[in-house]
Amino acid sequence: MPNDPGFTCSCCGAHHAELPMSYSTAAPDVWDADFESDPDSTLSSDQCVIKGQHFFIRGLIEIPVIGSQDVFSWGVWVSLSRDNFARAQEMWDTRGRESEKPYFGWLSTELALYSEGTTDLKTNAHTRPIGRRPYIQLEPTDHPLAVEQRTGITLDRVREIAAAVLHPA
User: Fold this and answer.
1) Cα angle at 167 between 156 and 12, to 5 degrees?
2) Cβ atoms of 45 and 58 closer than 8 Å
3) 64 forms bridges with which residues in the sheet?
4) Are 62 and 69 in contact (CB under 8 A)?
């Protein structure tokens, strides 16, 4: 089945009809359901404020798939300073926002597939045209996620990620 977009899972041995090319989290790791009743806290699909003191936006860490036109992506949350968050909000529905300088932030999503923690990796959030989530660029370190973002991953790695996400330990 060379043109089959699915994959046979290394964990369960079953054939899954599709090979997911993206995964996402609904909230920053520090979000707690108790914040829902806090008037100074809010969570939307793209932005989050906790107790009026911590500010986050959702974006994509995109990773090229070697030998393919495909891109694998992690939907993640990044903490921003109050000023950068205010500017991102101000520009959220403004045409040309992709011309903004990137906003420095800290990765606020733990991706358990990486042996080294991912929370608090340094990032730059690049805004894109309206309707597209920001592109999250990791600082070019030796962290495995940062290396993958720079050098790309194979389809076998995408299958490995799928198996791990679909069947968490």
Assistant:
1) 75
2) yes
3) 71
4) no
Contact 2, 12 (CB under 8 A): no
pLDDT digits (tens, 9 = 90+) for 17-54: 788 999 999 999 999 999 999 999 999 999 999 999 99
Q: What is the pLDDT of residues 128-146, one digit of tens each?
A: 999 999 999 999 999 999 9
The Cα–Cα gap between 71 and 133 comes to 15
- Size (the chain), residues: 169
Q: In whole angstroms, what is the distance from residue 123 CA to residue 118 CA? A: 11
The pTM (predicted TM-score) of the whole model is 0.89
For 62, 125, 141, 154, 159, the CA distances from 68, given in Å and listed in that order, are: 14, 25, 25, 9, 14
